[in-house]
Amino acid sequence: MAAQPRRRSQRLLEQKQDWSTILPHELWELISKWLPSGRDAANFRAMCRLWRDVLPFTEFEPVLMLPFDPESPNGAVTFYRPTDRKTFTKDLPALHGKVVCGSSHGWLALVDEAACLTLLNPFTKATVDLPPTDERFASDSWRTAFKLDGRWVHPSFADGVVRHTKLGEMRDVFFHEVVLSSPADSGDCIAMAMLTESSQVAFCHVGGDDDASSWRLLNTGLKQDVSCIVHCRDRFLAITYDAQVSICNVLGATPTARPVQSFHLPKQVNPLSYLQVNGELHLVCTVVQQGSTTYRTRLYRCNVFARKPAWSRVTNAGHLTLLASHNLAVGHAGGSVSGLKENSVYYSGHLSGCIYPYGCKHSLNHVLEIINVANGTSEWLPYRQNTQGSPEALCWIMSNPWTQGLCLVIP
Fold this sequence. Notes:
Blueprint: H1 3-15, H2 25-32, H3 38-47, H4 49-54, E1 63-65, E2 76-81, E3 86-91, E4 98-104, E5 107-112, E6 117-120, E7 127-129, H5 135-139, E8 146-148, E9 151-155, E10 162-164, H6 170-173, E11 175-180, E12 190-195, E13 200-205, H7 210-213, E14 216-219, E15 226-232, E16 235-240, E17 245-249, E18 256-259, E19 269-277, E20 280-288, E21 295-302, E22 312-313, E23 320-325, E24 332-335, E25 344-348, E26 365-372, E27 378-385, E28 395-397, E29 399-402, E30 405-407
Parallel strand pairs: 23-25
Antiparallel strand pairs: 1-2, 1-28, 2-3, 4-5, 5-6, 6-7, 8-9, 9-10, 11-12, 12-13, 13-14, 15-16, 16-17, 17-18, 19-20, 20-21, 21-22, 23-24, 25-26, 26-27, 29-30
């Protein structure tokens, strides 16, 4: 009689479905987007072919967004992929009539001539509108702007004549850069905006009711204008050009800002870009070599939450690849992927002319500077022909928050 239950159990096991295929394909795709770390992503892909299909390796490659024509009706924009040194073009109609003023967690921040902000995921084409702008932002920025017949105007810096604020001037009048605390569709995202030449910042909750999501101003307590904002350890860091920092906590009912006690950058350091890595503030900068006019790009870090914060040079970033650009002050860091050098910084932007020797063969191209963090040496990777007056790349785009940084989504 004992054999019968065993045979019944065996039949049940044979009839049992493979649990890795029970759920619908769409649900596995949703789960793959919420993996908290690179290790979890690797384990997910190792399970079976189905799971590898919903999480391809191409989802973790960075892309560099190149300049686009905001008047293009279909919003055609070209991206450069450094992993295989190729470009691809996408039509993003949401870009029409807008300029980029931020890149965080795979979302772009866009502003139009009405000073309205929109968040765009360039790969899913999802959009989120942020609260409307009012005169408070203009009054707290360097330029005085006001509305005339429904359009923003400002006095010209050159002759004082009042002129309409054009699209290309919006970053110089209102939101110079916008940083997100998390993906715009996460449900708890906060956007913080750096106002043009102001010691105040503006923030809002993305989504929610009108009162909770409206813009609010916060005085950072800094004596100089804020030049960069970085999200780190659930707080925002407002940073001046000479690296003075104010820790802004906007999670509670009463937002606070606490300037960090004075600490200074090393001598001859020129800041290029800031980013957070493992809860510490990192700085990509150029340094003048002693006894010469030669510049070298270096990486520094500082725990601004320490009792006595101090900057120190980084010579080992482990398996990370750091990405920075000239157009936006905030950079990104993430686990290196095939085709990118680990323990390196990829910088796209204007560097001092003395970095490149006269007659450099790359002078006819826009180039990425790839800095070896360990020894400080640089190499240059041309990515776009430098036609007369052609602007630099706009920004890096990364998504899928990982424990050591951000990873990216491409088609």
